[in-house]
Every structure is written in structure tokens, then in C-alpha cells.
Amino acid sequence: QSVLTQPPSVSGAPGQRVTISCTGSGSNIGADYGIHWYQHLPGAAPRLLIYGDTNRPSGVPDRFSGSKSGTSASLAITGLQAEDEADYYCQSYDRSLSSYVFGTGTKVTVL
Amino acid sequence: QVQLQESGPGLVKPSETLSLTCTVSGGSISRYYWSWIRQSPGKGLEWIGSVYYSGTTFYNPSLESRLTISVAMTSNEFSLRLSSVTAADTAVYYCARDLYCTSVTCYNPRAFEIWGQGTMVAVSS
User: Fold this and answer.
1) Mean predicted confidence (pLDDT) in B40-45
2) Cis check: omega of the bond before B109, within 30 degrees of 0
């Protein structure tokens, strides 16, 4: 089981705003390690959405935004679109495990 | 545009060694960190390990005793060897290029910026 916990699923209607939480502890997010977010469509390679807590790579729409506070981080998707239906993962580092770690993953469903 | 492509056997017998190669095209392997990540059926992503172009390696402690990651600059490739495999090693294996620094700052931990399409490896007799 991952040390970064995400809700198994979130859903929203087209155009709505959804948020995905990533809850860690003092040995990862709370130790001031950065958070990155990935979008993973079935059968495709994961795509980097957010790096360094809040930064978007070139080509990622500004509908996607990241934030971090304390031992948690969040990914927000505004103006939800059908193409956003995918699995989303947070990623950081855990100093107790001495390992890069991914979150448990969240499936986003567009109603 | 940098692209990564995994290659290797899709079926490995239990107790044998899983070997995969990631070929980098459209750019040099120099000055970057490169990683392997896997996803077991129905599960989430798991970091396997990383290698710097100079050959320095960083392994997931849970796999370290069975793991070797190496880089071949002349062929612009890096490789994964996982020994003594079991059914638990059945997964889609991805290779990736790490994002460490931009012109503005460096990131800790590194992110996985560019990914290969992944290759399915089944461990079965």
C-alpha cells in the first residue's frame, strides 16, 4: 500500500470543477519534497501534468492546477471535459522508505 | 522530439531474469536521469529505479537485491535486469526520462517527464 493516499474515484459533469487530494505524512510531502501529478489513459503512457507542486509542462491546458499545503497536495481540474476521463497519480519521495513513491491513484469519471 | 521505446521478452519464466532495454531517439542520453516504472495488473504505479547518464544508480529498496540498471551511451540506451522473478513481477514496464532541473530551478524529487509506451511482461511457466 502506498504512503500517498488518494480517493479511489471522483466524478463530475462536463464543465464542472473536480479536485483530487493526495495525503501523505511528515516523511514525504510534509518533509518539503515536491509533488508531481500524472494523467494515465488506458493503454497509453502516463503524461506529466504538474511538476514541482504547481508547474505545468508545455502543452498542458491551464484547466489543470496543483497546490500543496502541509502533508497534503491537490490537483484541480476546472471546466471538466470528456477527454479528462483517466486515472491520475501523485508522486513524491519518502525519506523513511528512501524511495520515490506514487499515490494510490484516482479514477476521474465525466458524467 | 525525444521518444523512448521499451523492448524485451513479453514472457519470462519464474526464477529467471527479466531483461528490458529502453532506446532513446530524438535526443542524447547525456546529462539526464533515466528511470524504470512499472504497473502491475489492477494496481498503481511503482518506481523501480533510476540511472544517471554517468552510470550512477538509484534503486527502490524493495527491489534492490534483484535489480541492475545500466546505461549504454554509445547506443543511446539504458537497460533493466530483474533477477529471480515471480508472478508478482508481472506488469507493464515503462521507461522514462527524468525532469531534474529547468533553467529556473531544480526539483526534488525528480519528475518523470517523458515516458515510453510501456511493454507488458508476464512471469509464467
Assistant:
1) 92
2) yes
